[in-house]
Input
Amino acid sequence: MRIGRLLTINAVVAILASITAGCHSVDDDRIPSLPVNISLADQGTWNTYGVAGFGSSRNFILSGNEGREPLGFPYTQTSATGFGGVLLISGMDPYTMTADMPLAYDLACPVEMKRTVRVYVEGDMYEAVCPECGSHYDVTMGGGTPLSGPAAAGDTKYGLRRYRCLPTANGGYIITN
Output
């Protein structure tokens, strides 16, 4: 009886130890949740300002002090670009495994947590990189998860805040949270 109880206690301890040792969460809510509303709702606007082809990307920044990006984009009074701006990139949706999908993330690095410290897409790697801390993020297939640098260190990882790209009936998308 005593040996059976010891085995049960040891089994529970071993299971708990393996669970806690394997727990590495990704915090993708570290950047403040501010409104996002970018309308690329019709085919013409999508063709001009959207993304097509794996890894193609575009930034959307609507800031009083820093101007607007992209130049000429028809922002409206209801337009909003989150905390640090929006990175729109064509990739594979990590949840549905659908290829050539528009994906959107906040441009602010979740390690630095400053509006003006923005990730950028690095060349052929199709990774977003923070110019300050050097963290790399998988933005084409990994949902903004950290790959290296301070964002990937420790038990809690810091991922990019994701936004939704909703298809419209007119052949475009609306980016929102």
